Each structure stands twice: as C-alpha cells, then as structure tokens.
Predict the 3D structure of the following.
Amino acid sequence: YPVKVQRYILNGIKTGDIKTIENAITELFNEYIYDKQLSFNQLQKLFITLAGGIESSLWADGFSSDISDEYDIYSQMEQCHNFEMLKDTFLNYFKQIITQRNRTMENQKDKVYISQAIDFMERYYSKDIQMNDIAEFIGINAIYLGRLFKLSTGKTMMEFLTNIRMEHAKRILSSDKYISIKEAGALVGYYNVQSF
C-alpha cells in the first residue's frame, strides 16, 4: 500500500496544492506500472483502495465531504478503460475535493464575518455606526460584507441594526415609565427623534 503517496495527496488536499497531488499520482504510476508492472485491474483496485484510505483520513481529520454524492470515484474508476483515463479520473476526484474544501473553508470564514458584524452591532448599537465602521472593524470590504450579510440573514446590516436598536428601545421604554421617547431613542443610537 502506497502510504507515502497517500500522505502527499492528503497534504496536497489540505494545502490546496494540486501540483503536489499530480506529482504523487505520477510517482504512483511510475512505481506501480513501470517498476512493479501492475496490470490495469490491479492498479484500478489499488486506486480504489487508496481513495478509500484518503477519504477515511480526511473524515478522521474532521473534513466531512459530500463529494462522494457529487462525484462517485468508485463507479468513475470502474468506467475507465486505460491507464490515462484512470489517472485523470483520480486527479479530477482530488480537484473536486479541494474545490469543496475551499468552499467549506470560505463558508466558515463568512460565518465568522457575520458573527463579528452582529457582535459589533450588539456592542455599539447606541453609537452612530455605519456599514463602513463594521466592515473596517472586521477588516473586509464594506460592499462584500453587505452582500454577505444580506445573503446570510435576509436583512441588510442597517435593517438588522435597526431591529437591535428597536428591541433595546422597547426594553428601555417598558422598564422606565418616566423616560421620554426622545431620551430612549438617544440611548439606542437615534439622535434625531424624527428618524426614531
């Protein structure tokens, strides 16, 4: 079993380096076709076993992949009729995994941005904050954050901030009978009564 090749492929997946994977597969081909002279069927079985080992390792490392639903490597390999098709199929499979891994990482990063934006609004709702202030605090482009926020929450950041302010204003007004609407508005970030 090609443990070294498996390590190279796993490293290539984790770093997103397709060249490392290509080199590992080429090395595998050279060793098992030319040096060990495996038949096509033997190499096909080896690749299927290797794919299973790599999937298991990724799963053990916390990368749950739905790639097998989209790209069934086992049936794809069974449809290969020559060494080159087998090599291309194997390589394409890992390209798909890298693409999915990158997408998953991007989604996780986007969730962190949304969480940071909401945290910022919850913390500074009483200040005069704008979308640019939130984006600058997070360290990303304001337009990108605005689109991302709308996609994730269904609301613009300013709509979300308004809801936070209104909830706080309701609590203030219901807990203190003597506070004016103008004062409550100022406490939650509305300094102009007409906009409150």
Q: What stands out?
A: The mean pLDDT is 86.
